[in-house]
What we know:
alpha/beta, Rossmann fold, 24% strand, threonine biosynthesis (chains A, B), EC 1.1.1.3 (chains A, B)
Amino acid sequence: MKTTHIGLLGLGTVGKGVVEALSHQNTVVIDKVLVRDVTHHHSNLPLTTDIHEILDNPDIDIVVEVMGGIDPAYEYLATALQKGKSVVTANKEVVARFGPKLMAMAREHRQGFLFEASVGGGMPILDALTWHLNATPIHAVEGVVNGTTNFILDQMEQGMDYQAALQRAQALGFAEQDPSADVDGWDSARKLSILAGLAFHSWIDAENGYVKGITEVRAAHLHRLKEMGFGVRLVARAERHPSSIGFVVAPTVYPLGHRYLKLAGSQNAIGIFSDAGTTWIEGPGAGGLATATSIVSDIQRIRFSVPDRDPIQFESLPVENINDAYLIFAEDPERPLPVIAEALKSGPGYLILPYELPHEEGFVQYRYRAK
Amino acid sequence: MKTTHIGLLGLGTVGKGVVEALSHQNTVVIDKVLVRDVTHHHSNLPLTTDIHEILDNPDIDIVVEVMGGIDPAYEYLATALQKGKSVVTANKEVVARFGPKLMAMAREHRQGFLFEASVGGGMPILDALTWHLNATPIHAVEGVVNGTTNFILDQMEQGMDYQAALQRAQALGFAEQDPSADVDGWDSARKLSILAGLAFHSWIDAENGYVKGITEVRAAHLHRLKEMGFGVRLVARAERHPSSIGFVVAPTVYPLGHRYLKLAGSQNAIGIFSDAGTTWIEGPGAGGLATATSIVSDIQRIRFSVPDRDPIQFESLPVENINDAYLIFAEDPERPLPVIAEALKSGPGYLILPYELPHEEGFVQYRYRAK
């Protein structure tokens, strides 16, 4: 078996996981690792701060990118493909924004471009969605794809206010110092773009969807919902409508016992709904070694398969203003909320707390989708 | 894109699902369908009763087998590979018994041999296990992989005795007229052989494992367990031990609320436990269209990938007599069963009802694994 040579961009938590996971593979070698500052790393690895030592090295077959961010990652990956290297990336920002463009480049240059780690870090979701679940038309894809918000919502449910819960998450390393991508819903929205793109063959710009984070969720509401037998999770959902795509990321209410409320730690859950039935995949959504398994899997798939797979023909479907599909009502929190309970009990109720509306004194406002 | 020509062996529920699913694919054509009796089918399809019209037809690229049974299916598939055709099969008997042999033949003749539909009919489990989940060492694979026994156990829990529950399952089409493979545990055991073989790279002969079906489960026990807050499912589990494989299929007790007890209809659930975390896949375990999606997915993977993937080197590990790892005790069913409750509450309790022992008057016998 021919040895495959890797150029690794980034050596954070995931990068170190990739190094560890590849240490078990004796026909895959890391030739060079791009870091920002060589003196920050105590490592026997062949470090460099010069991207050209990777992009211009004809020995390197696959560029593995775990730096994150659009700039300069996108340029590096586009250049790698143009120079005839395959690319494996964990970068959801780049894939959500430039996925079809990079796929087209990869086909043009007959290279592999895989990004399993970009959604549900350690879960086998994207390849399954591309090949298996897509064999019959998909109606909807939905999931809890952000572990940080799970942790914060759990803490708040136990009475902590939002700021205190966020600080606790940061202190324990579950949230970034700049948590905005997680708590504002954009991390989930980018992942949903990728899921919806592969499910519906129409790549969604999340900016056109309804994206609402958890920053306006109130601990008192969560506490009260819990007493009533409900819990809240930040849920991302895309639906195939006749000539559009419904796209929503929002805090959503579920009855206790629902799988979303049982997810522990960084576990994520993603459901795919099609004529053939419903498939759920639950697994580690983050973590160095877990995310690295997705990357190693992509590397092996590229090593053992022809890159010019059947080109997915992307359609350009409009994003539906899914807001219109929801009914808003307000209710006195001091009184029972039979409407919520009924909506949830009478089937696959889908209920959203719309915190963008002003909170009137003594009232919580809710919206739910008209059936 | 070159048209791919299919020879289909079998036109039962799954075969018809394959025909339907392939009708959406305009570069895949079914050239010939092998049936037992042409007059039994009202169909525009090119039917034949002569296997040579498929095996000797040089135009046919991929043989898709959905007949079931070892004989003559195994011979047909081996011959197809030797004649330079790729093979896709849903046949768990053939794969459990001859998997590594057929994989070796496929490599020798540089053809694809895929069998996603053989375990968890419509679930994306085997490819994920082969490529993704295997990127870090797997400790255990476990699941509810037989929907028929779920249905029977559910009926019995509501008070029906075993025979009546089985007859109801047969009347509704959930159980075969000869239900032995399902209720005796061998359907689950064959699927576990395949899962364990791909997870541990050691192919297990299920005959060497501990395989116990549900035929001796008593409705009274189920009813009593339910009152105590527990339910029973037929669970298949294989574990990687230092120099052996633990292999068990047995009725197992879980606290209510466990995912296994929530599986509806033909839904299956399979968990993979590794250093990278735990991944669960839940989806349709049977059904014509669901199983057909696995087959179409395999066809597409063969069309777009090189068949000579890295040969899995199978080790030959002994199967542990997992019976030894279980402690048996008997208890008066009229009194509470605190030991069961404690065992289940104190962690990943794993509890088996061993119905092979005589049921002493007034006693139920249990075994659970020593921690």
